[in-house]
Amino acid sequence: MRELIIRREKTLIISCSTERGVIKKVKISGDFFAFPEGSIDKLERELIGKKVTDVEEIVKSSLRRCVLVGVSLEDIVEALKRITQPL
Amino acid sequence: MRLLLVSGDAKFNMALDEALLELISLGRSEPAIRFYRFSPTAITIGYFQSIEKAVNLRKALSLGIDVVRRPTGGGAVLHDEKGELTYSIVVPEIPGEEVEKSFRRICLGVVLTLEELGLEASFVPINDVIVSGRKISGSAQTRRRGFILQHGTILYNTDLELMQELLTPPTEKLLEKGVSSVRGRVTTVSEQLGREVSFDEVLSAAIKGFSRALGEELVPSNPTEDELNLTSELERKYGSEKWNEMR
Questions:
Q1: Reported ipTM
Q2: What are the structural domains, with CATH classification, of chain B?
Q3: CB < 8 Å to B47, chain A
Q4: How many CA atoms lie within 13 A of B209 on its CB side?
């Protein structure tokens, strides 16, 4: 699993593994707030098996009703894009 | 508002906080505020934290300190049985109010508690209260059906060395704040007053401080049967590996 840490007002840590451009595993963690909390669990489930090129669309759609505090939706998109880029 | 003063271990404390949010948000319980401690000393981690990244698990295990995931976001906390008072409150959301403003509104109770103890404190966004530039209280929230559960700490005599050994914040976060350790950016009521204060003294100040902040009397009360039954159910979740190790 690759890991990326982004620091804003709070910290966002994304761990992710991909295979041939498809997300196999992903964990979004950190000391931020998100309401409702379950929307981050749901996003993780929705990312599995998806193409890395579709990350932005999935995050924006999945978190459209989620209120994030300490990190932003753009931070999550940016982190996922960076971590899924080929080495 | 009802005032509940029951304390327990980490899983009981988190279970009762969630039970209060659930039942109050369903209209089956009246709003309530709790002041409590963790017996025995425990660590709680934020809903989204990775247990391995946030806590020195080997050290916690060797000291027999439980680590329990909270229903709320935010960071890891050491709840020192002999040095920390926790508050928790369930209040309605104000439509359109930003999260940071709600933290500020509810943290006024912490600021006034510290004022009752003779300290000048201020709220610092997102969720901290500081005295003399150092953190003395942190809070966290979750929300359900238009109600907010906010709980947080008041460090009155916490073992800050132990806190530093057990919690493992990313180094850069401390460097950004211009200090080299947890110890350097956190303080306690006892440290600030230059004398050892007791739980009861802080409790008495907290009852006055929150009562002033809320503009209402806090009426000593016991959890309802409904609340205790749901707490027992939820304790299973907070005691499970599935919940505590989910990240």
A1: 0.96
A2: 2-241 (3.30.930.10)
A3: 37
A4: 26
